Amino acid sequence: MVLCTSPGYDLDDPFGIRRALRSLSADRWDDFFSQWCQVTELSEFAVERVRDVADQLARQPVEPDGRPEPLALAWETIRDAMDSYLAARGEVGPVPRLEP
Fold first, then answer.
1. Number of helices (H), then strands (E), in the chain
2. Does 58 reside within a domain?
C-alpha cells in the first residue's frame, strides 16, 4: 500500500488537535474542546466545512497587547493541519507554505 502524505501532514495527529492543545495553556483546553464540538457538529463532521470554520476562527481579533488570541492560534493550527490532510487525500492541490 502506498501512503500519500503532504508537507505538514502528521499521521498521528491528522487534524492537528494535539498540536493545537500544545499551543494552549491547560486552562484553555475546555474552551477549545467546547468550540471543537460545536464546529464539528454544525459542520456535520465534513472535513472541508470544519476547515473553513477553523479558518474563520483563526482570524479572531488580537489581545489588547497586540498578541494573537490563543484560541485563534489553536484554530490556525487546526486549519493548517486540515489543509495538509486534504492535500494528502488528494482533495486539494499541494498547499503552498510561505516561510516568514
1. 4, 0
2. yes
* 83 burial via Cβ count (<10 Å: 0-12, 13-18, 19+): buried
- Which SS3 state, helix, strand or coil, does residue 68 take? strand
Going by C-alpha positions, the residue among 86, 84, 61, 83 that lies closest to residue 71 is 61
pTM exceeds 0.90, yes or no:
no
> What is the mean pLDDT of each successive set of 10 residues along the chain, which is 100 residues long?
60 92 96 95 92 91 82 95 87 48
Task: Copy the grid coordinates of residue 22.
Answer: 500544545
Q: 36: domain range?
A: 19-88
Considering the domain boundaries, does residue 49 fall inside one? yes
How many domains does one find in the chain?
1
